[in-house]
Structure formats: C-alpha cells, structure tokens
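ARCHIVE CARD
Drawer: 12
Card no.: 0347
Subject: one protein chain, sequence and derived structure
Cross-reference: see card 0346
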Amino acid sequence: MRFQIPIWLGNLIELLGLVFGIFLILNLKILPYYLQILALFIAWFCFWYFSHCLAHFIVGKAFGLNFSYYFVGRSSITKLNSKFFAIFRYFPVLGIKVEPDSLKRISKKRKFIFYASGAIASMSTPAISLLFAMQMDKIVFSIFLLLTFGNIAFTLIFSSKVGDLYKARVK
C-alpha cells in the first residue's frame, strides 16, 4: 500500500531537500575536513533523491499534465528478479501520480521527455557536488567522480529496463 502525500506537500519536501543540499554545499568551508566529506555525501544524496519527482512535476506542468498526489513507495528496480536488488525493497522512494487522462492528451515526444526528466535530473544534479569535491583533495574528488558516473551508468542500465527510461521508450 502506498502512502499518499498532497501535491503541495510533495513539492515542498522536494524543494526543502534540494535547498538542504545547497545549504550544505555552501557551508562546507566552515566544517572540519571529515564533516565536509560527510556533508558533501549528504548533499550529493539530496540532489540525487529530491530532484527526480520535482523534475517530473515541472516538466509535466509545462506540458499541461495534471497530478493526483505524491506517494511513498518502492523503487521500480525491485521489479528486477535479483537478490542483489532485494535491498531496495526497504528503501522508500517518492513518486508522483500523473492523472492518466491528462497523459493521453500529450504527444509521444512529450511523454518521452516527461518520463525521462526524472532520470535525467537524478543523473545530472548530483554533479553539482563534483564542483565542490574538486576543491578538496584528489581522493575525495575521485570518490565523487566514481559515485556520480556510477550513478549515471546504473541509471542508464537499470532505468532502461524497469524505470522511467523504460517508460519513456514504450509509453
């Protein structure tokens, strides 16, 4: 069963998560070195997690889509039959429910862009952390480079099988 959240509250949660990531990044210099690294990881996570549905909402609204609610549920990756991905059953994700009738009114190209927008946002916005990791030592930068490009590779592979990139291709 999904836990439903009103659209206004879901948008607020998404915005606050992104603002928190920005706040952490902008205040790195006042923290001790090891807390800078932790704050950078948390900011990376905020950019990855909270940009996804907000991108769907913004793009969807630009295309005239209507939304019913946000929800807390499971990642589409749990559809993969793998013991490795079973851990994702315990990781809650935010989703957004688009009203099916409004989705029928837009072109295939716009549907593609709408579905792909979340994946594109969660692949690209964590790269903000790279700009700040570059100002730290090479090891920290290398870790964030691997994390960011690992996320991109992971998303391209698995989202195209069961996630938004799959929906972008077939719907």
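Annotation on reverse: The chain has a mean pLDDT of 91. The longest strand covers residues 67-73.
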